[in-house]
Amino acid sequence: MESVQSIKQRFELIGNDVKLNRAIEKAIQVAPTDISVLVTGESGVGKESIPKIIHSISHRKHAKYIAVNCGAIPEGTIDSELFGHEKGAFTGATQTRSGYFEVADGGTIFLDEVGELPLTTQVRLLRVLENGEFLKVGSSQVQKTNVRIVAATNINMFEAIEKEKFREDLYYRLSTVEINLPPLRDRRDDIHLLFRKFASDFGQKYKMPTIRLEDDAVELLLKYRWPGNIRQLRNIAEQVSVLEENRNISAATLNSYLPNSSKSNLPAVIGQTKKESDFSNEREILYKVLFDMKSDLNDLKKLTLELLKDNDSNKVQRENEGLIRKIYGNQEEEDIEHEESSAAELLHLPEPVVEAAPTHSMQQPPEDRYHFAEEIEEEETLSLQEKEIELIKKSLERNKGKRKAAAAELGISERTLYRKIKQYDL
């Protein structure tokens, strides 16, 4: 059995990370058997190296090794590519064609991006894994094949199974042994080593002096998250090698090649499932706008009625300072005073004109001085009120009872939120 170090030298694998060494060890141990292997890891971590290692030190090493990118083959032709087809099986099938499983009989097939396989193809693949049988497209004759299947994927298989995009029984058949390759950001000590190797290779390839990183550039290199992993690191090394005339690379120079480097130290975990309490629904957003409009309208009704009753804008302003502040915004004190005075001027009603008493003897009933003001009755829509209470509760729960944050999320002032909490007894 070959050692991990000899395998690294043979396949030019760079790094001394513990997780990387463990993945190579598992590949060496499983190679002499015929059990299926599933290689997992993010895009760009080098998953294609594992099936090559397994094939090269197995008893199948003298037979064919075929690598198939399942995500690059159209859904309509993938069955034909994998299992072959008979002449006339579909439009354009002018002759019988052998598929990869027939050609690779006795060898190894590497199915890259296996999570992208259509469900109908997954059923055919499951049959190959269970008893080595398959049918060509357009044929009724069962054929046998003896292949070793190594698959790889960068998607979360359990999420794909939950969404019914991948068969659970096929997953357990493929992952008899699962080998996970770590992302580059978890191999901090290997990053500079890999960059130097790539820089040296590109220096020889383009017949140019090898670039070297200054200390601050090395520090930046280690801090970056490398979402594209080894593939991205290799591309950056090639760009810098070709484009930079100065072969000593500073942090400022390197930073210009790193996309979103200012956010490199921040985690970028995004939940895939939407919470019920999130404002991700247009209906909830519309409800919130309606609540705000309804609340402002009721406040204006109240203020207008008090002005009509008292006919004293100064008194109304003093007694309803908080209400006016809420309607016209919670700004700086001088802005508030200015807006309150503006509101009072706008809401000031002219003195009613008292007409002279009629000369005839029959006394007319006194004229209503405010005949132009219609009587307003406040109406509460029960469903809207319940929805408003529900939104306030959810916002308080999400913000762990912090009223200021909850008010900002709801788009209202903290004073208004406090009043609504007291109003609804929350």
- How many helices? The count is 19
**Biggest sheet, spatial arrangement of strands:** 2-5-8-1-9
Largest sheet: 5 strands, parallel
Helix content: 40-55%
Mean pLDDT: 82
Globally, the shape reads: extended
Intertermini distance: 70 Å
Uncertain ranges: 272-279, 331-336, 342-350, 353-362, 376-381
**Category from helices, strands and their pairing:** alpha/beta
Strand content: 5-15%
Number of strands: 11
The secondary-structure element order is HHEHEHEEHEHEEEHHEHEHHEHHHHHHHH
Write up what this structure looks like:
The strands form four sheets. The protein has a five-stranded parallel beta sheet, with helices on one face. It has helices at residues 4-11, 18-30, 49-56, 78-83, 100-103, 119-131, 157-162, 168-174, 188-205, 215-223, 229-243, 251-255, 282-310, 313-319, 321-327, 333-347, 382-398, 403-410, 414-424, and strands spanning 37-40, 65-69, 84-85, 97-98, 108-112, 133-135, 142-144, 148-153, 177-180, 212-213, 248-249. The protein is extended. With 426 residues, it is an alpha/beta fold. It has 19 helices and eleven strands.
Helix/strand layout:
Layout: H1 4-11, H2 18-30, E1 37-40, H3 49-56, E2 65-69, H4 78-83, E3 84-85, E4 97-98, H5 100-103, E5 108-112, H6 119-131, E6 133-135, E7 142-144, E8 148-153, H7 157-162, H8 168-174, E9 177-180, H9 188-205, E10 212-213, H10 215-223, H11 229-243, E11 248-249, H12 251-255, H13 282-310, H14 313-319, H15 321-327, H16 333-347, H17 382-398, H18 403-410, H19 414-424
